[in-house]
Design brief:
homodimer, alpha/beta, Rossmann fold, 5-stranded parallel β-sheet, globular
Chain lengths: ~350, ~350
C-alpha cells in the first residue's frame, strides 16, 4: 500500500484524535481571540494550507462575523516591508512549520503587537515556537509528498476554534460526528479505482465549488495537478460560469462539489449548463441530483451540516486523484517536482 | 478590425484621460481614506476586476502599508449574513457597476458605518450611486466581451489613489509616463500574430507571476481561457514551483511575467527549472534574460518602476490571447459562454 493511501485512510483517526485531545487548546485560543477583539483576521499560508485558509474565510466570516484576509508573504520577504497588522489576529498555517515566508509574516505581526497563532503538525518547528499560541495538528508523520491528512487536520482545527469562538452547542455536537462521517465517505469511495480509468487520457479538467466548499474545489484541483500532471483548474461556481466555462467542450470532465446547503441551487444550475455542453460532470454531494445531470455521483454522508462538509467532500477527490495517478502509472508518494517543505523566500 | 483589437489599442488614451481628468477625484478619495484611518481594506470584485483587486493587495500593502482582504460576496448573498466590516475601508470594483453581489457587500458595509468607494465605468450604475465616493474609469464603452481597457483603467485608478495616499512625488512623476509606456508596449508586440501560430494546437499552458505581477499572471490566464478555450492556469511563482510545476512536460508553454525588480531573481530561477524540463518559456520583461532561458522575450519598456509594470505587462498577454484566438479561428468579440455583465447572486 502506498503511503498516500494509508494517510488518506488515517484521516478519520486523525480527526478523532484532534477532537478528543485538542479541545482545550481550541478553547484557550478562542478565548484569546475574544479578548483581543481584532478588527479582522489575516492568515499566512501556501499551497494546501492556503486552501485551509480559504475554509477559514467562510467559517469565520459566516459563523464568527470576522473578515479573513489571506496574507501576501512576498510583501514581507521580497519587498522587505510589512503592512500594518496591528489591529489583526494573524494566523500562520503550515504542515511542516518550516516555511520561512510564513514565519516572517508572524514575526512582523508580533513586532507590531498583534495576537499570533500557528497551526502546524510539528510543535518543535520555528513557526510553532514563534507564535503566541500553537495548535498542534497531531496528524502524525506525513510521508507521502502530497498532503492529505494534514489538510483535513487543518480544517478540523479551524472548525474547532470556530465552534469555541461562536460558543454554539450545536456546532460541537456536529463536530463529534465528523470521524464517523469521514469513515463513511472513505467506504463509499470503494469503487473509485474502476470508474476513474475512463479518465486515464484526459490532460485537463475543472473542479468547481462555492462558499464553504470553495476550498474543496481548490484542494482537489491541486491534488489532481500534483499527482496526475493534469491541468485541473479550481473555480468558484460564480466566477466559472461568467467566462472560463468557455473551455468546456463535449467530454470535458468537471468535478462539481455540490453538497446540500446555500450553494446547491446554483450548483444544480451550473450542472444544467454543463449538461448542455455535454461535459462529463462528476458530482460530490449528499444531495439528490436530478436525472441526467451527473455522469457519476460521489456520495458524502448526509449527516453533516454544510459548514462541516468540506472535511468530507475533499476525500472522494483525494481518492480520485490517487487512483487516477495509479491508472496513469505515475508514482503516488513522490510525484515529480514536488517537495515536502515549502520553503519560499 | 475587431472591437477587441480596437479596445486593446485604445488603452494608452484611456490611461492618459484618467491621469488628466481624474487626479482631483483620486486626491479626494485618498484624503477620505486618511481621515477614516481604516484598520484594513476589503475589496469586492469578480473576474477581471478581482485581478485588479490583486494589484491593490500589493500596491496598497507595500506603498501604503494597508492589508487588503478580498471580500467573499457569497457570504453576503448566499449565506445572507455580513461579517464585521465596521473597521474596514470597503471598495467595490466592477466594469458595469451592475454586479448584484458586489453591491450587496457595499450595502452591508455602509450599514455598518464603513467608508465605501466604487470604481466603475458607469457613473449612473447602482454600484456607483451606492458608494460614498465613486471613481469613474472613463474607459468609454467596452463592446468586446473580454475586458481589456477597463482592466488597465482599474489598475491606473488604483495606482493614482495609491500615489495620492502615499503623497510621493516620484510616484506621480512615474505615473505621467504611463501612456507612452503603454503605447511602446503595443508597438513592440507588432509581430505577435506570426509567432503565436506555433501554439495553435496546444490546449493547455501556464502563466506565472509574483508580487506586483501576480495579478498579471491571473489576468493573462483569464484572457487566454476566455478567448482561446485553453486550460491556462495562473500561478504565483512561489506556489507553482512547489507542486503544480509537475504538469510541465517537454513543450509545455509557460508565460513568465518577469520584470526587473524584487521578483526577478526568483523568476530567472524558475526559468532555469523550466528549461531543464524543456518547457516553452515566453517571458514578459524589461530585463535581460540569460541565453537559452526563453523561447521568446516579449518586451515592455524599461522606463517604469516595478509597481507600475502590471499596467504594461498585461498588454502583450492580451495581444497574444487575441492573436491565438484568431489563429484558432475563434470569434474575438463574442467568445462562447461569456457575458458582459457579471450578475452573480
Amino acid at each position: 500500500m502506498s503511503h498516500l493511501q494509508r494517510e488518506i485512510e488515517e484521516q478519520p483517526d486523525v480527526i478523532a484524535r484532534l477532537l478528543s485531545e485538542q479541545s482545550e487548546q481550541a478553547q484557550t485560543i478562542a478565548r484569546a481571540i475574544r479578548e483581543a477583539n481584532p478588527a479582522y483576521i489575516c492568515i499566512a499560508a501556501r499551497g494546501t494550507s492556503d486552501n485551509a485558509a480559504r475554509y477559514a474565510q467562510y467559517l469565520f466570516g459566516i459563523k464568527a462575523k470576522k473578515v479573513v484576509a489571506l496574507a501576501t508573504p512576498s510583501i514581507h520577504t521580497l519587498y522587505q516591508t510589512a503592512p500594518d497588522l496591528s489591529r489583526a489576529l494573524v494566523i500562520g498555517i503550515s504542515q511542516s512549520g518550516q516555511s520561512e515566508d510564513i514565519r516572517q509574516v508572524l514575526t512582523d505581526a508580533k513586532a507590531q503587537g498583534s495576537l499570533t497563532i500557528s497551526l502546524t503538525n510539528k510543535p518543535e518547528s520555528p513557526l510553532a515556537q514563534q507564535a503566541d499560541y500553537h495548535f498542534d495538528l497531531m496528524a502524525g508523520e506525513e510521508v507521502s509528498v502530497a498532503a492529505t491528512k494534514s489538510y483535513t487536520a487543518q480544517l478540523t482545527a479551524i472548525a474547532m476554534i470556530g465552534a469555541h469562538l461562536v460558543g454554539d452547542a450545536d456546532m460541537h455536537t456536529a463536530l463529534a460526528t465528523l470521524p464517523a462521517a469521514a469513515r463513511d465517505t472513505i467506504a463509499a469511495a470503494g469503487d473509485t479505482a474502476q470508474w476513474i480509468e475512463r479518465y486515464r487520457y484526459t490532460d485537463r479538467l475543472a473542479v468547481i465549488g462555492r462558499g464553504y466548499n470553495y476550498c474543496t474545489a481548490f484542494e482537489i484541483s491541486l491534488k489532481i495537478k500534483e499527482l496526475c500532471y493534469i491541468s485541473a483548474d479550481g473555480w468558484s461556481e460564480a466566477d466559472f460560469r461568467h467566462g472560463p466555462i468557455a473551455i468546456v467542450q463535449p467530454g470535458f470532465p468537471v468535478f462539481v462539489v455540490a453538497p446540500r446547503g446555500a450553494t446547491s441551487e446554483h450548483a444544480i444550475d451550473l450542472l444544467a449548463l454543463l449538461a448542455k455542453r455535454k461535459a462529463e460532470s462528476l458530482v460530490i454531494t449528499n444531495d439528490d441530483i436530478p436525472e441526467g445531470l451527473a455522469r457519476r455521483v460521489l456520495k458524502i454522508p448526509a449527516s453533516l451540516p454544510e459548514w462541516l462538509t468540506p472535511i468530507t467532500a475533499v476525500i472522494p477527490g483525494q481518492i480520485a486523484a490517487m487512483h487516477l495517478a495509479a491508472a496513469r502509472d505515475l508514482p503516488l508518494d513522490k510525484p515529480r517536482g514536488l517537495s515536502k517543505v515549502t520553503n519560499t523566500q
